[in-house]
Amino acid sequence: MAIDILEIINKLRKCGFLPTVQRCSYSLDTKTVLGIVGRLGRELNAAFVLDDENRWTYIQLLKWLAGDKTMQAIDPDTGKVVAGRLDAGLYLAGPTGSGKSGALNIMLMLARTFNIQVTLNGEQRCLFWKEVRADEIARNGQLDRYNEAGVLCIQDLGTEPTESVFMGNRFQPVRQLIEHRGDAGGVITLFSSNLPMGSSVLVDRYGDRVASRLREMCNYIELKGKDRRKSR
Fold first, then answer.
1. Neighbour-count burial of 185, counting CB atoms closer than 10 A to its CB (0-12 exposed, 13-18 middle, 19+ buried)
2. Would you say the C-alpha torsion 219, 96, 208, 164 has a positive or negative sign?
3. Which of 35, 44, 80, 174 lies deepest, with the highest CB count within 10 Å?
4. Beta bridge partners of 191
5. Average pLDDT of the chain, as a whole number
6. Which of 96, 105, 100, 108 is nearest to 65 (CA)?
7. What is the pLDDT of residues 160-218, one digit of tens each?
8. Would you say the pTM of this structure is higher than 0.85?
């Protein structure tokens, strides 16, 4: 009997036995949506402006949101532009005040506005995410609600204490959370951080295993520029 391996894999995915992320494709007019981004940005920060330092990044974020196969990302080792992966999340790096948190907030607002859909492990749902700061995860020590979130946004990765004490035990909650979500599959995780993905500081802080998981889980994108909050 001839066996079609691909057919078997697809059936298992549809039944939810294999972790999957499937993206829907939306037709969004880039010029129009960039205009919306500019307006939303100014609502969050009166000094916000789309310019040569951040326009490419916003275009890639919008393409990721829309499920556009032409989306691009950055190789964290070489800094070269590479093809993006729509079934992966985002790791947005940049200096303090460059607007990383605001950029991801704008993407969330647009996801709600355009009712962007995603299919996780065979279940279609809205591409909305819970947002949490890394230091909040470190403080509360309760990972279940973050482990199981279909889409999760972790802001300011790298600013939290390396270790936490919960019920008398020392552990590394953010590190454990990243490892869990990276191993689980079928979820989407977004990060903002001052630490470049290829930075030795990130490896020293979280270890090789987490650094490897982040590369598998996320498209790496940088948001360059000066501290835009100083212009307020």
1. middle
2. negative
3. 174
4. 91, 154
5. 88
6. 108
7. 877 665 555 667 889 999 999 999 889 999 999 999 998 999 999 999 999 999 999 99
8. yes
CB atoms < 10 A from the CB of 141, how many? 13
Question: For 92-101, what is each residue's pLDDT tens digit?
Answer: 999 998 899 9
How far is it, in rounded angstroms, from Cα 180 to Cα 62? 27
In our burial notation (b when 16+ CB lie closer than 10 A, e otherwise), range 71-86 reads: bbbbebeeeeeeebbb
Q: Partners of 190 in the beta sheet?
A: 90, 153
Nearest residue to 28 via CA among 114, 142, 104: 114
Rounded Cα gap, residues 179 and 24, in angstroms: 27
Rounded to whole angstroms, the Cα distance separating 115 from 205 reads: 37
In angstroms, rounded to a whole number, what is the distance separating the alpha carbons of residues 63 and 155?
Answer: 21
Residue type, 90: L
Q: How far is CA 21 from CA 84, 164, 177, in A?
A: 14, 32, 19
- Predicted pLDDT of residue 232: 46
Phi, psi of 13 (to 5 degrees): -65, -45
